[in-house]
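Let's practice the habit of predicting before peeking. Look at the sequence and jot down your guess about where helices and strands might fall. Then scroll down.
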Amino acid sequence: MSHFYMGVDLGGTVTKAGIYTADGEEIGVVEQTAPLLSAQSGFCERDMAALWDATCQAIRQALAESGVAAADIRGVSFSAHGKGLYLVDKQGRPVRNGIVSSDSRAQPLVTQWKQEGRDSEAYSRSLQQLWPSHPPALLAWLKQHEPESYDRAGYILMVHDYIRFCLTGELACEETNISGSNLFNQREGAFDPALFHTFGIDEMADKTPAVIGSADLAGYVTPEAAARCGLKAGTPVFGGFFDVVGAALTSGVHDSTCLSAVAGTWSIATRVFDRIEASDYPYVWGKYCIPGTYFVHEGSPTSASNLAWFVQQFFPDLPGSYSQLNRWAENGYGKDINIQFFPWLYGSNFHDSLHGGFLGLSGHHSREDMVYAIYQGIVFSHLLHQDRVQALGSGSGTIRFTGGPTHSAIWMQMFCDASNLPIEIVDVQQSGCRAAAICAAVGAGEYADFQHAMNHCQPPTLRLEPDHAKHRMLRKRFEHFKRIAGALSEVAPVG
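Done guessing? Here is the structure:
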């Protein structure tokens, strides 16, 4: 009998469900949107019941459009956004709206904690930099501003933990995602009561479900969930992983010799090690899906979403807008354009107080020059992450790239030249769904482990080689970019 695997990708705004063969061939993917809610500045939430409904709709539609029978789905798993907070009470009912990773309401609290040295105190255990959408920051904010929600909390979950509970009725936290929560001790591999104490949320230390691995069996689709989503009752459901891990898995990254790079809403650089490397810099570490390995990554919302904003504001009706923008960027790459763009419309990876903007505009510059500057600025902001990750141990010799900008040949060449390393563009449209489906295949025993699955399911890649002259030019401009950012950090107001 034919059998297939379903991968559910729970992003910050869109939920996708895809059906794949055991070797990663896509049968079909559909998506549903659960609207983001912003009651006030800095808030970014989703109705948890609406999110579950959107997931059910996506699963049901994927089955219907693919023609694959529910009985032929051998397993389900997930790729999910990190950070955020999805609270349920002791009966498993949502306490309030879920909070997504782009929420910034707790930034003043995080700033205060940094001034008090709590970031250093926590880092020795969690190996996480403080972020306003981390669960402890959001929990502490709720304790101050929504004590009734705080008191009703029964279990702390990440987004895929909640959807997995809706499918199976079983509560658990998946390791690769919860290890980035700032509540998890990386070396001990467990929640750490000392971290709850550091952040003043001791009451939450007993509200943590069991931790499971990515390919661990979490439970089976219940009859109630089957009636909602169309899957067969009894279908196995597996842990899943943080979408950063999913991107690295899709790219076939299993050790430190190859770097995983993602450009989309977020700019992300990831490497995998078999141990936690000592360093004076506070690198962000987490548990990788391969047992006994760790991933180190840096990320920020400083990527293609900045270009999308510019297009929406100034070129909403431009036919074939991205093709045109790519041509303008390609023309700009051959010119001496001295404009700097800082892609920090949604947050800065250089300093908390910085925001986006152009510097160096003159009357002779055109909109085409501004578009090139945006492409270049996004590359530079990515390099802030990539250079740090590359500095840890011997650098990777190759970069595997996924994300929307991979469809822009000129943009990828700019990333390649700036890195001065070969880039292999991974030819996958839906890396999150595909990775989640492969996770389910590993869990179901289709492969002995993730290493075997990656070797068998590696998608085709397009290899680019760097232009060394362009590298020198871009690096010179990048140094200028960093000097300006440093100067702006000295004068920008905090908050």
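How did you do? The mean pLDDT is 94.
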